[in-house]
């Protein structure tokens, strides 16, 4: 084959030249490259305009299509499909806030609160102020669903998130309190409510909420105060009214239990019950009266006086707001209640004075009795008790004034007469030792007038008559002693001086002896007929107001020998002084008590008191005298 032909065949099988189509493509590429770069543009020439790109329009169109499909799926309740459509749209256009909001609403329809909240959070990243209310509401719905399922810890977390998103909405914080309460974190709940009330103006609802928390914490007193405040702010608040009714019913039930315990003598148990009643109704003056009476019977006089004074104050407050015609019955009831409180207060002062008397604290007992007399000036027993204290202190004039005051109020009271007899006998003994025999004879005469039974009175008066040379009176008194106490050791020497040369039988059988016997027996019979001597002896052994028939509430009055609740004398003195400050300053009371309460003669000044010395005490605590008068075993108690 010719060489030229071979070359032609190779060219056909492996063409080395560029075909026309390839050449055109190559030129177009070079032209595009030169047109797209300023390097290939001659100086002074303009670049050709770039054609419009359609990619963004395509994306927008496709996102709109997904959004439309998602809306249609929502309308048909195809929520899973709607989630997918909105997800595709968000992928194409994540900066569109509405797409996130729509997807959140779809999740909300599916009760997927976590995903719904996440969608709204993404929307808030794009716009910080958007959908705040909706996000908080979703957290609230989530928390409520968890709360209904009993998942209180998870619910608390959800409600806390809602409160953080919307801090000005109190409803979300209140649900947090409900969760804390359900989990037993009552103290934390109460702290939250207290913080709200400190920062905001409290409302009746807040007071009711706090009252319920107090009730769960068994703080019934604080609960009652909050309920009363809630009712004052909103009298028509049904929750407050219902809660107040519950407290009143609980208080009445506890009071009735206290009454039952008291009737069976279980005073400590009754005190526990009445404390429960007062926690539920801390403004009921009847309960303070009840507890004050229990404290008095339990000898806790400090607490008794505090409760009774509180009852008086509450009763006065109630009477102050009453007074209308429709409240007349209630006002009368409150008035009788106040009288009963004042009566119990007098009893408490008296019983406390009895305890002081039994420990030898006569000055403190006098102060307490002064308070009792200030409250009630018409009770004989108070004057008798104060006179006893003055007698023990040796203040004869004060004691005589109190006994005489009691005699004016009850002239035939044997207790008064016996005390006067003892006092006149003691004063006569003092006068005899000081050489004032006429006064001594008069004093012994008064003692015999009030109590003609003790032979010592006649013996002492006979000795006084001998000193003033009244032989007839001395002989008559000797006969009385001989009749009443034939074994008296003083009779033989007296017989020798008054009836020399006569025997005792001769004296008794004489007409004078017969006349004295008849007169003495008539006098003693009249005296003993006026009272039951055994009852009087028992009564004089303890220091009470009067007998139980007169004072129905004094059946538990203190006995003189029982131990005080106080540990020592100093403690007793402090308590007494504190009690006297309940209504007034102790200092002003001490300055005024003498002028206010004492109705008898004043005690002689120090310069004249030398004539009223105190006779010494014997081993039994009785006053004794020495010298010609002999011993006086008659005592007051």
From TrEMBL:
Query: Which keywords describe this protein according to UniProt?
Result: Repeat, TPR repeat
Q: Which Gene3D superfamilies match?
A: Tetratricopeptide repeat domain
Q: Does the keyword Cytoplasm apply?
A: no
A Pfam cross-reference name? TPR_2
Region Disordered, as annotated, extends over 1-30, 596-637
- Locate the compositionally biased regions of type Basic and acidic residues: 1-10
Q: Which SUPFAM superfamilies match?
A: TPR-like
Which regions does the record annotate with the repeat TPR? Answer: 63-96, 136-169, 285-318, 380-413, 421-454
Q: Does the keyword Repeat apply?
A: yes
Q: Tell me the InterPro entries matching this sequence.
A: TPR-like_helical_dom_sf, TPR_2, TPR_rpt
The cross-references to SMART domains, in alphabetical order and at most eight, read: TPR (SM00028)
> Low complexity: which segments have biased composition?
622-637
Q: What is this protein called?
A: Tetratricopeptide repeat protein 16
* Species annotation: Channa striata
């Amino acid at each position: 084959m010719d060489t030229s032909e071979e070359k032609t065949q190779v060219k056909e099988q492996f063409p080395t030249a560029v075909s026309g189509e390839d050449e055109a493509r190559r030129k177009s590429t070079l032209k595009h490259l030169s047109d797209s770069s300023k390097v290939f543009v001659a100086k002074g020439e303009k670049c050709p305009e770039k054609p419009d790109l359609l990619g963004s329009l395509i994306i927008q169109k496709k996102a709109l299509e997904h959004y439309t499909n998602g809306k249609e799926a929502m309308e048909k309740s195809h929520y899973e499909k709607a989630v997918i459509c909105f997800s595709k749209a968000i992928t194409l256009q994540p900066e569109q806030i509405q797409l996130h909001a729509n997807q959140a609403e779809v999740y909300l329809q599916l009760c997927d609160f976590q995903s719904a909240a996440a969608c709204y959070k993404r929307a808030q990243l794009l716009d910080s102020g958007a959908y705040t209310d909706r996000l908080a509401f979703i957290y609230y719905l989530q928390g409520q669903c968890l709360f209904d399922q009993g998942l209180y810890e998870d619910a608390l977390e959800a409600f806390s998130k809602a409160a953080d998103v919307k801090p000005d909405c109190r409803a979300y914080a209140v649900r947090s309190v409900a969760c804390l309460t359900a989990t037993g974190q009552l103290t934390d709940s109460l702290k939250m409510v207290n913080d709200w009330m400190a920062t905001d103006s409290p409302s009746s609802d807040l007071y009711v909420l706090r009252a319920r928390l107090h009730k769960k914490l068994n703080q019934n007193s604080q609960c009652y105060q909050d309920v009363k405040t809630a009712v004052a702010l909103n009298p028509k608040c049904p929750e407050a009214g219902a809660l107040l009714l519950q407290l009143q019913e609980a208080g009445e039930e506890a009071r009735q239990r206290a009454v039952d315990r008291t009737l069976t003598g279980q005073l400590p148990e009754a005190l526990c019950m009445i404390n429960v009643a007062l926690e539920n109704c801390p403004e009921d003056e009847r309960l303070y009266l009840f507890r004050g009476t229990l404290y008095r019977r339990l000898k806790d006089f400090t607490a008794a006086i505090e409760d009774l004074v509180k009852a008086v104050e509450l009763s006065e407050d109630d009477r102050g707001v009453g007074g209308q015609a429709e409240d007349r019955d209630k006002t009368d009831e409150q008035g009788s209640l106040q009288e009963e409180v004042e009566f119990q207060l007098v009893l408490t002062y008296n019983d406390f004075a009895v305890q002081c008397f039994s420990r030898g604290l006569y000055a403190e007992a006098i102060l307490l009795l002064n308070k009792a007399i200030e409250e009630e000036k018409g009770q004989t027993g108070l004057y008798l008790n104060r006179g006893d204290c003055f007698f023990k202190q040796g203040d004869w004039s004060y004691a005589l004034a109190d006994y005489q005051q009691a005699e004016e109020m009850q002239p035939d009271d044997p207790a008064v007469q016996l005390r006067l007899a003892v006092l006149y006998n003691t004063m006569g003994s003092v006068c005899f030792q000081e050489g004032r025999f006429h006064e001594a004879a008069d004093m012994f005469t008064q003692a015999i007038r009030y109590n003609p039974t003790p032979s010592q009175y006649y013996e002492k008066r006979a000795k006084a008559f001998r000193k003033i040379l009244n032989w007839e009176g001395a002989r008559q008194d000797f006969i009385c002693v001989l009749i009443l106490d034939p074994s008296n050791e003083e009779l033989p020497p007296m017989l020798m001086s008054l009836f020399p040369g006569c025997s005792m039988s001769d004296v008794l059988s004489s007409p004078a002896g017969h006349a004295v016997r008849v007169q003495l027996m008539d006098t003693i019979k009249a005296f003993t007929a006026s009272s039951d001597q055994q009852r009087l002896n028992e009564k004089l052994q303890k220091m009470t107001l009067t007998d139980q028939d007169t004072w129905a509430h004094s059946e538990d009055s203190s006995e003189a020998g029982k131990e005080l609740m106080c540990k020592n004398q100093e403690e007793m003195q402090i308590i007494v002084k504190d009690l006297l400050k309940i209504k007034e300053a102790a200092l002003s009371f001490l300055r005024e008590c003498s002028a206010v309460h004492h109705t008898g003669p004043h005690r002689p000044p120090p310069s004249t008191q030398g004539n009223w010395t105190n006779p010494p005490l014997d081993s039994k605590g009785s006053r004794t005298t020495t010298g010609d008068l002999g011993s006086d075993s008659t005592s007051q108690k």
